[in-house]
Structures are given as structure tokens and as C-alpha cells.
Amino acid sequence: MDLNTWKEAVARRLTDSARFLKKMTPDSLYGMLAASSLLPVIAAANGGDFAAVAALTGVVGGIGGNLIANQIQAWKDTSENALAAELGELATTDPRWRDALDAVLVKLETPRIMQTLLAEADKDWFARTLRQELVNLGNEARYEALLEGSGAIAQGETATAAGADGIAVGGQIGGDQIVQIVKVYMTAPGQPTADADTFAQALDRYLAWVAKRYGQLDLRGIDRRERQVLSLTLDDVYVSLMATVTEERKPSQRKGGQRRQPEIERMETTELQTVDMRQLLAMGSRLEIIGSPGSGKSWLIAALQTVDMRQLLAMSPRLAIIGGPGSGKTTYLYIIAAGLAHALRSGDRSAVDRHLGLIGDLPLPIFVSLSDYNRYRRQCEESDDPHKSTLTAFITHNLIRQEAALGLPLDFFQRLLVRGHSCIVLLDGLDEVADERERSLVRRAVENLAANQGIGHLVVTSRSRAHQGRAVLSEEFRLAKVQPMTLEQAQALAARWCAAAYNELDITKESLRLQQAIAGLEAMRRARQEPGLVDSPLMVTIVAIVHYNQRRLPDERAELYDKCIEVLLAEQHHPETPAMFDLADWGGNLRDKRNLLAYLAFRMMSAGAKVGRVAEEGQIEEWLRPRLVKRWGEAEAAIRLAAFVRAMRERGSILDERGGVYQFIHLTFQEFLCATYLADSVRVIDEVVEILFQEGRVADSWWRETVLLTAGYLHLRSTDAPLAFLQALLDYSVQDSALALAVAEVAATALLELDSQDPVIKGKIIDRLIGSLTVNQLRVEAKLRAAAGVALGKLGDPRPGVGLKDGLPDIAWLPVEPGPFIMGSEKHNFEKPQFTCHLIAQPYGISRYPITVVQYAVFAQAKGYEQRKYWNEAGWSWRIKNNITGPEIYDGVFQTSNHPQVGVSWFEAVAFCNWLSEQLDQKVCLPTEAEWERAARHTDGREYPWGNKWDQERCNNTDLHIGFRTAVGIFPTGDAQCGAADMSGNVWEWCSTKWRDNYQGYEEKVDNTLDGDGLRILRGGSFAITIGGVRCADRLGDNPDLRDWVSGFRVVSSSSTSPDRCLTSQNGT
User: Fold this and answer.
1) Residue 175 forms part of a structural domain
2) Measured over all CA atoms, what is the biggest interatomic distance in the chain, rounded to whole angstroms?
3) Which of 195, 478, 632, 913 would you call most buried, defined as having the most Cβ atoms within 10 angstroms of its Cβ?
4) Phi-psi region of 149 (alpha: psi -120 to 50; beta: other; left: phi over 0)
5) Which residues of the chain have pLDDT under 70?
6) Is 580 found in the same domain as 565?
7) What percent of the chain has pLDDT over 70?
8) What DSSP string describes 1033-1059?
9) What backbone phi and psi angles, to 5 degrees, belong to 1036?
10) Core vs surface per residue 536-556: b (16+ CB within 10 A) or e
């Protein structure tokens, strides 16, 4: 946390407090302001952000900083009201505290920020009330500037304000900075066309227009059947994002003879291209830089840093903001324009402080659409006047002639742009110039304007893919790439959106619902190993509008995506420009547009995973033309196709076009629209299924989401249609057993998403899943096997030994005969020496599978964690000390019912065994190390449970790249001779035995008792271990309180189990 982020956090807190401020008791304003100022630092520091303490010390100084810093941990869980009362008391009784708190409030300008957030009727009350408190404290003088304001401010219709330079301006014009801008206009070379007062009045009209045009959000995707058009201010909803920026170039590097940044060496492959390394940041968010020593590999890493976008304007006077569609580039320019216009006009710079981080005099904002400029430039190509096609001439043409109602003098901008650093020029959309040659010309015009030293700041935006080749801006521009939103940022934007959109009674409820819905959606996508969806301001806005329209965010994915498409096609996020009107006209009505895009999505999906993410313009025209001709005829089809291409070139919403190459802004929308094509255009279920089985699409991961979304989209129409679709998938004649498993898995997942309990389809899917997963002959891709196991668990895995029987764990016991066996190996010191073990003197039973999630849950639900009798002394002490009330919980697939329970310590595994012994009325224990190895290895000393030859397909290990534990028993070819499954890989398994470094004298010295807290044995390896760790002889020792996501356990039972392996004889009740 730095000073800027600290201020932003304080402003957010004050925004919430402003509504209830007048309800506060006397003498509490000061304490409340102090608490609101310190709470962000307290939260950040207690969260590990020690930069927050440094920021505090920088503001307060050594003594005051230490006073506050020493209390930060104690204040961790203190409420705002309690902290406010405590700080108010400290300020009253201790001058050191009063000085420290004053330093914070003055530096952060907390009173001024609060005053600007209040309604007009409350501002005077606030100033009077706080001033009286400050008089009582004896520190009023420190706050006069914050409460009174400063500089020359014109207060009435005819009042006149004069600045230090003696130029007077009249009426409702705000302060010294306006006077300074007037001075620049009046003193620029040449004779001005307007006097100072006339210019000042025109300036005021211009600022009011900018503040309204760029500060107001007219959301046209809002459902208007029951509500008025929702109009929000940008300041209400804006959330600053993070950007990765390049190192600032030194002035000497910009001169002739400068050292070029290294280029990537051309490789002998068509998949690589040679680019200037300045372009790399625009080409992706994940880059691997390869090169020989001294080749400059480290240049890019050293040159990058990630900052809050509020810091950007202070970092460089020339900025290029790049990012993907909807990433917030244009919105950043809007907040600059609107914030500066409002601050210059009113003297209230709170929005500038919150969002821009500018200090000192504020520049005049000038916003320019580069796509509109390019249209204008084309019209000027035949002109003999070389100055007519410049950006300066366009600004005059666009903002003076086209906005004639503002009544601006003809030399309004020309005079301001030549001197004084009085302007900030905001150039939006270099990427929107579709033709590469024209983009190069526009880039040159931008650089020519940037050479004008009279312009204080110049900021350009471009999409990442367009900032390449001849469109790359010169080194004078510092490059900043907007980063995807974090979940926290998305939720913050959603909260601000709700605060602005809903009435006061509904804000808290709707904000919480929307934030939870976004978090749930992103968690679901992570669990499905899909990229984030709500990770840009555009997508947050879309889902917020869907939530607003529907009064909820749909639970079903298909319905959510359906509503998102509606909002996207409404073009709600474009300003009213000529480009926007072209967009509104393309493709006919909403249904025609959607059908066209759906067919395009189908053709792109049909192209396959390697090339189907993008399509070239010629290919798209070839695909779409026949459909348009069939519907509209040859002539009209040509017009509509040209309109489509033009609209996507200018600024597609759901489609992104660059350099004649198109792609959907998110693969999810391509997959969903393809599903709608199958459901709406193909329609006949059997024909849809036939298409999906062509070329094995139904089993192709590229088509998986489309298959699932087809079922979901059909469900939006009726409950019968998706079931008929799934039945047709299952009934399709399939000879390939791997394909049959893939169909069963995707049908299971679809049925689960539909939340259907149809017994016929469910039973058929379960039978096929079990039949496929438990046959030795099936060779299938590992990730499909894992996914099928997850689906079986979610449907309800009926296999014996996996779930429950009469409400208790159903253990499938396998007999193991007594007798000698080979134990250990000569490969590692802790496995030596290999010997013939005689410790198994009695038969015993071992569970076929590790204890599963659903089986362990019964122990926790039966309050096993609360009953002392099941725990050894060390385990019970550990549980109490650490407040352990259940197993460690891991998200997603780790909670699937038929997967091994992980996240349990050895202590917990022992407690479970003792609880189960009581429930089953038989002795149940963890296996000893010898019992475990005998069951896994048989008697012949084999390397793996199945034999001596390694086969990665026989167990869940790291070579399969599954990346998580799988359902128990789905690698049947890896079973041990006794029938026990998963004794290699999947999860490590606790044994009762205490660790010994080797097997020297093992039979005499082995200790299987349960007392103490010494290291315990783990065996079998896990999904995160390769060949060496899944051998039968491999062993590991760890602390009995270890809880992780790779360790579980299985159980053994024997009528002759030694009493010292259970607790009833030791601890009683």
C-alpha cells in the first residue's frame, strides 16, 4: 500500500459513511475521520503488507508513526466505531496522539474528501460541527485550508475572481487554474479572437460538456420494459486497475545514435516472427525470453514493473495504454477527461485525487477518437494544405465545428496547444484504424503531435494485437499494459456498480448477491480448469447489467451466457460516435445478428482446436455469404456482409478484429453461440447428435463445452429437450470403448448441470461409467479417466467399499495371508537392507480402497472431533491447541465423494479408526508398515503392485499430468495381488508405525504403538510423484500433525490386532 492506494481506500470507506454521518453523536466526527483513515493501514499491515507501515511512517514521522504502528496488531479486530471512540479519547488526552492523527488527516485530506461526498445541504453542517470539535481540541488552524478551500473562486453569477497574474474572469468559473488557462490563451503568439471573459465563459461551457459526455454512463443494455434508462456517473463506479509498464527511457537514449533494444533472433520455423522487443509486452501476458549470454534476455524483465494505474500520469508525460478488448483502456481516458473537467470547473479535485494521482496545476483535457480522426484524414487527402490533415486541425474541426452549440472560439485549441503544458490530449483507439498502412499514418500523426512540447501529457490507447509492426509508437512513449482484473477488483467494481444503480434499501443486499455470484462463477470456472470470465471491466459491467435486468445472476451457465450475449449485442458500452452508429446498423435485428454470429461460431469450432480460435476475413466472407444470399438475395447480401466487416473493423463487441483476423472476445461465447446454432438452426436432436459424433467431436476437449452448453441451452426451452438430447447421445451406436466412456462422462456432467434426477438416464450413465472404468482392457487418456471418476462420484458411486452402508463407511475387506515376504530394497539407504520379513504372523483384512471423502465425513458429522476417547494424548492436545474441528478442506475436485480423503493428519486417521472400531464392533487400525508393504508387494518382492515393469497408465502419478487425486479404484490394472487398489500413486497413506531410518534390526526394534508425537510412516506415493516414489519399497516419514492435499489413509482389521494399536486400553473415556 502506498499513499495513493491508501487515499483510495479511505475514500471508499468515507463513501459508505457519508450517508449516515448526521446520525453521529457530537464530538465523534474527529474520531470517525481518524478511524476511517487508519483502518486501511491496519487491514493491510495485518495482512502482511508492510509497505503500509512505511507509508504511515512517511506521513506521520518517527514518533507518531511508532505510536500508531505499535497498536496496529491490537486493533486488528476492532470495529470502526470502537476505534473511532478510542482515537477520539487519545486525541483529547495525549498531544502526541493528536499531532500524529492530525498529520494523517491533513496529508490524506480526509475532511475535504468527506465534505465533497456529502449532499450540499450537509456540507455546511459538517464544516461547523468538525470545526467546533477542532476548537475544543485546540488544533483548528491545521485544518483551515481543508475546510475553507484556497485560491480564487468565483462564487456567484456575476462575481469576479482574479489570480496572481491579474487576469480577471467572471461568473461561476473555478479558481486560479482556470485563470492560468485563460492566461495561456491570451498570451499565446498571435492575436486571440476572443477577450478573456468571453474565452473563460466558453471554457466553462466546454468543461461542463466534457464532464457530462465522458463522466456519464448511458447503459443501453438495460432492460427497459419495467425501468427507466439507468444513467450512472463514471466516478460512481470506477475502480483503478493495475498495469505493467516499461522502464522510462533516459533523454540521452532518445537522441541519434541510440542503442537499439535487442531483437529476437529469427528461427528456422514458420511459427516464429522477428519483432522489436518493445513489442513483446503487447503480444501476451505470459512470455518466455530465450537467448544466448549477453543477448539482452534480462532487458525486458528489468524494464517492467506493475503499478496501480493511478500512478501512470505521474510516471511519464507520454503514455501508450494497451490491453485486450474491454480491459478498461478507454474508460481510463474517460475518467481522466471527466475528472479533470469537473475539478477545473468546480475547484473540487477529490475525483482527481482518488483516480489520477496528479498534483499541482491540472491540465485541460482534450479527448480524440483516432478512428474518427482517420475518417477525417481520408477526406483531407486531396487537400493542398498539409496542415489540414493534422491532429491539431482535426481537434479544431471536431470539437469546434461539430460541437457548434458550445460556441468555442475558432482558435480555442490552437492557442492552448502551442505552449504552457496546459493540456492533456487523450487519443483513443489507435487499434480502431483497421488498415495497417493507415494505422501507420495515424501513428505518425500522433508522434508529430507528441513532439509539441506545449502539450503537458499525451496518452494513447490501443489493443495489444494492433500495437505491432509499423503501429508501434516511438520510445518517447512509455508502454503500460492493463492487467486482467483480480477477483477482488471485479467484486469492488460490482459493489460500486450496485451502490450507484440500486436504491439505498437494496444496495447492501444486491451488492452482496452480485459479488457472491461473481465469486461463485469464477470458482466454478477454476474447478473446471477454465480461464476466468469476469476479469475485465467490460465483463463485470455485462454481468452487472444481467444481474440488474434479471434481479439475479442466472445459476445455469447457458442462461447466463445467453443474457450476456444479449447485452453485448445491445452495444451498450460504446459512446455515440459515427463508429457506434455503424455498429448499431450491421446485421439487421437482434435475432439476425445473433444467428449470423452463431453460424460463424459453428464454422470456427468445426475448424478444430489448432486454428478454430481465429478466422481470416476472406474465410468468414466465404462462410457467411451463402447464408446471407439465401436469406436476402445477392445484392442485399453483399451490403449486409460489407456492413458486418465494417462494423467489426471499427470496433466489434463480441467479435474482435485486427488485421483482417477475427476472434470472439472470449472462447466461452464462441462455444455457447455454437451450441445455440445446433439447437436453433439444426434443431432435430438426432441430426445434432450426428454432427457431434462426426470426427469424434463429442469426445474432443475442444467441443466439450459446446456439448454441455447445447444441453443447457435446450433446457432454457423445456425440461424434456435436454433429456432427449442426452438419451440420443447415449443410444448412438459406438464401437470404440474409449469413445463410449467419453460420451458417458460428458452426458454425466450435462445431467449434473441440469440438476436432473431422471432415473433411466442416470442409471444408464452410472452403469457405463463403472463398466468402462473397471475393465482391465480399456486404454484411455488419463484426464478422461479422471473426469469420468469425478462424474461418477457426483452422480453417486454405488461400488462396494466406496461409500456408505446403513449410514456407516462401507469397507470392502480383502484378506491377506500371513507368512514371510520380501521387504525393503537396496536402492536407497532408508530402504536398506532388503530382508525377508516374518512380522505377519496372523491373517488380516485390508480395505480395497483408501478411506473416501464421503466415508470420512460421517466421522466428522458424528462429532468424532469432540470426543476425547478416540484420540491419543498428543493428538488431542494438538487438536485443542489448533482448534481443529474437521479435515483440511480443499476446493473443487478434492471434495468429490468417491475420492480419497486428504487433508488429515496421522492423529485424525487414528481417531477415525478408533471411532470406526466402535461403530463396527471390530478392531480397525491403520496398517503397520509391514502390513502395508505385504499387501502392496505380495510375497515375491515385486517393484510395483502389478509387477516389475513400470507402466505409467496403471496408477495416478505425475507422468500422467492429471494434477490431482482421482476417484478410488479407477486404475484396475494397477491393483495389487490381494486386490487392493491405488497402493501406488493417487495419495500417500499413513501407517501406524513410527519412523526408522532403515531396516537394520527392524523386526526387533519396530514400534507400532500409538503414543507420542514422533514421525510416522507414509507409503505409496501420490499423484504428484513420479516413478521412484510409487514403488512398493519407497517410504517416507513425517510429523503426525502433517495435513496436506497429497496424504490420506486406508485401514486394516484383524481379530488378533494387538491391544496397543487401539486406544481403549489407554485412554478410556
Assistant:
1) no
2) 111
3) 913
4) left
5) 15-27, 50, 61-64, 119-121, 141, 144-176, 218-231, 247-304, 401-402, 419-421, 434, 454, 464-471, 528-529, 571-589, 648-653, 658-659, 1055-1069
6) no
7) 82
8) T-EEEE-TT---TTEE---EE-TT--G
9) -145, 145
10) bbbbbbbbbbbbbbeeebbeb
Query: 712-716, long-range: CB within 8 Å, 24+ apart, which pairs?
Result: 712/556, 712/557, 712/558, 712/559, 712/675, 712/750, 712/753, 712/754, 713/558, 713/562, 713/672, 713/675, 713/676, 713/679, 714/679, 715/556, 715/558, 715/754, 716/556, 716/558, 716/559, 716/562
Residues 326 and 459 in one domain: yes
Dist CA 29 CA 39 (whole Å) = 15
pLDDT at 708: 95
CATH code: domain of residue 627? 1.10.10
368 with 410, same domain: the answer is yes
Distance from chain centroid for Cα 540: 11
Give yes or no: residues 516 and 654 share one domain: no
List the grid coordinates of 553: 445472476
Q: What global pTM score does this model have?
A: 0.64
- Domains identified in the chain, total number: 6
Q: Which of 982, 977, 1058, 988 is nearest to 1024 (CA)?
A: 988
Residue 289 is assigned to a structural domain of this protein: no
Q: Residue 921: what are its φ and ψ, rounded to 5°? A: 60, 40
Three-state secondary structure call for residue 47: coil
Whether 942 is covered by a domain: the verdict is yes
Whether 909 and 990 have beta carbons less than 8 Å apart is answered as yes
In 284-369, which ranges are continuous DSSP H helix?
Answer: 297-303, 312-315, 329-346, 350-355
Give the integer Cα–Cα distance in Å for 1029 and 1032.
9
DSSP conformational letter for 882: T
Q: Say if residues 307 and 242 touch (Cβ distance below 8 Å).
A: yes
Q: Which pLDDT belongs to residue 705? A: 92
Residues 562 and 580 occupy one common structural domain? no
- Compute how many other C-beta atoms are within 10 angstroms of the C-beta atom of residue 714: 26
Q: What is the DSSP string of 617-631?
A: HHHHHHHHHHHHHHH
Residues 31 and 111 in one domain: yes
Q: Which helix (H) or strand (E) holds 815?
A: strand 813-816
* Residue 346 within any structural domain of the chain: yes
Distance CA 319, CA 356 (A): 14
Strands 304-308 and 615-616: unpaired
Q: Please measure the distance between the N-terminal and C-terminal CA atoms of the chain and give it in whole angstroms.
A: 53
Q: Could you tell me the three cell numbers for 610?
A: 489448432
Residue 7's identity, in one-letter code, is K
Whether residues 902 and 943 share a domain: the answer is yes
- Rounded alpha-carbon distances, angstroms, from residue 588 to 583, 599, 924: 11, 15, 72
Q: What CA–CA distance (Å, rounded) separates 695 from 258?
A: 56
Last residue of a domain, one of 598, 633, 665: 665
> What is the 3-state secondary structure of 466-481?
HCCHHHCCCCCCEEEE
The CATH number for 1049's domain is 3.90.1580.10
pLDDT in tens, 595-616: 889 999 999 999 998 889 889 9
Q: How many CB atoms lie within 10 A of CB 600?
A: 24
Using the Cα atoms of residue 533, residue 539, residue 541 and residue 546 in order, give the sign of their dihedral: negative
| Long-range contact pairs involving 400-406 (C-beta distance under 8 Å, separation at least 24) | 403/209, 406/202, 406/205, 406/206, 406/209
In Å, how far are 432, 588, 597, 602, 643 from 640, measured between CA atoms?
20, 8, 13, 20, 5
| Grid cell of 449 as nine digits | 503531435
User: Can you give the residue range of the structural domain that contains 20?
Assistant: 3-148
- Which residue from 920, 777, 789, 926 is spatially nearest to 847, judged by alpha carbons? 926
One-letter amino acid of 492: A
**Predicted local confidence at residue 822, as pLDDT:** 97
- The grid coordinates of residue 226 equal 419495467
